[in-house]
Amino acid sequence: MGELRLMKGNEVIAEAAIRYGCDGYFGYPITPQSEVMESLMAQRPWETTGMVVLQAESEIASIHMVYGAAGCGKRVMTSSSSPGISLMAEGISYIAGSELPCVIVNVQRGGPGLGTIQPSQADYNQATKGGGHGDYSLLVLAPASVQEMNDFVGLGFDLAYKYRNPVMILADGVIGQMMEKVELMDQQPRWTDKQLKEITGSWATQGKTKDRPKHVITSLEMDSHIMEENNLRLQAKYQRMKEEDVRFETIQCEDAEYIMVAFGCAARICQKTVQLARAKGHKVGLLRPITLFPFPEKIIAEMAGKIKGFLTVEFNAGQMVNDVRLAVNGKTRVEYFGRMGGILPSPDEVEQALLQKLIGG
Amino acid sequence: MSEVAERLKNIIRPENLIYGKSPVLNDVTMHYCPGCSHGVVHKLIADVIEELGIQDQTIGVSPVGCAVFAYNYIDIDWSEAAHGRAPAVATGIKRIMPEKTVFTYQGDGDLAAIGTAETLHAVNRGENIVMIFINNAIYGMTGGQMAPTTLLGQVTSTTPYGRNVDLNGYPLKITELIAQLPGAAYVTRQSVHTAGAVRKARKAIRKAFELSQQNIGTCFVEVVSTCNSGWKLTPVESNDWMVKHMFPLFPLGDLKDGGKNATESFQVKG
Questions:
Q1: Closest CA in chain A for residue B124
Q2: Which long-range contacts (CB under 8 A, 24 or more apart) does B192-197 make?
Q3: Closest chain B residue by Cα to residue A27
Q4: B33-259: what CATH class?
Q5: ipTM value
Q6: CB proximity A197 to B under 8 Å
Q7: Is the pLDDT assigned to residue B163 strictly greater than 60?
Q8: Of A31, A124, A189, B241, whose CA is between 20 and 30 Å from B167?
Q9: Is A134 within the bounds of a domain?
Q10: Does the pLDDT of residue A136 top 60, yes or no?
């Protein structure tokens, strides 16, 4: 059993980064995730593990610092919240195009524009459909607890290096700000120079030695035929993610006639709704996608043939519902319920929507 | 063997060598226009890397602009940055691998327009990197549009009647701004239009790379450069135009030397 603590989700991101052996963090303050960098700065990991922590002049600069450092093969990350992630869209596209591994945390707030500092899930499309220019995908993990904020830092880095692709932890203001019990991992050492060379030495910018050609980190290719091949290689990688790394949780789905689909903090609320609905005799289950990309489309397609309908519950205007509809492909009903602008519905409110839109309708 | 080949063989001998190029400069045809300053500056950087013996310790950051392909010409590891972000990319590299020598190579649009924030803040943090700034007062790659350093009255494709203060504002003397920042260690402005100027520029670039290994702040070398294609002049006319029109606004010489320096007024007291 690892060390148990009562911690805020944002603080756990910082703690997990240090304990995992992360090499560097570059960020810019924004509510509701500023505790990530504040915790890192308070802990001064550069004196213990050697982890670099730097406050950049903007989110644009911080994501490009990540680009430079990730290009060296080092395990680096950043965190921000919605408007800051929009600023990072340029750099994220370059990181995906150059096939660099890194972890990006988005503790979502409500939009559009400056929006609100209250929690939201309105960046689902931005996170899962790329967000910047060009055909690329992030691998997107959606934590629903403070424990998962801890677990997904390490998992995120593991997946980022498995695919040489940026991984986004798509949290929200609730998960970032709430305190829960968390079991922390033991301190792991950072990669040694030897490990770094073994794992990333074939592509990273670590200084050109006589025994190898120079390494160039770039997304640029002027030859259209090669550029198309580059795109096909990326698409093949995303396909492999769909085959090997779809993650989800099912709660009381075995006998369910109606299934709610919800991620992150919405799934926490829906868990209670399942109990409320079941107490009234409705056979309701919950499917919680953990990876939003790759999306758990196979399990949804399988369920679609057996149940009477899905209700997506998401704190946006209905974004994930489109992915559920694609997976269901007309085989059963798919409805959406959500609130926006930082409003979180109660489990009763979700239950009412379930009854009105699906069960009773 | 033909007579000509035989004569050449007699000429090409180490004892006859009066000029060479570093093996750090790749044997490939450059895409730069004849008369452009980039090729000369690339050669100087390659020479300095060779002289200092730091080929395996140096990571370059190339920009967006004509020099986007700098990585094709200098045989070191490179990171190709998004437009204007080279100082941030270099910061990430240098912070995570502080033992390496890291430099950016940027044009005026990259460094002084879209990347102004990244430029000023990297220098203001005193990042221990070298920044090479090619100022040719025009956007070469995109086809001759106005740059932040375009002179008043200068004709470009987006200032077809000449740069106008009311419409376009003033040319930005960013190197003078840089020299004001306490994080700057060495700030100089050079050119490569004559053999003498090339020698001075080589010395300045070498000094910048040497100083950057002492970790005393950012070393910044502006090279006032020609873009004869963008300026629509011959290479010779371009050199003359640069001397006549650019040097008065961008005078050559050192602007700062001696390392990071902040006064006591920067510090909270008591």
A1: A57
A2: B192/B37, B192/B40, B192/B41, B192/B44, B192/B223, B192/B225, B193/B37, B193/B226, B193/B239, B193/B242, B193/B243, B194/B239, B197/B252
A3: B92
A4: alpha beta
A5: 0.97
A6: no
A7: yes
A8: B241
A9: yes
A10: yes
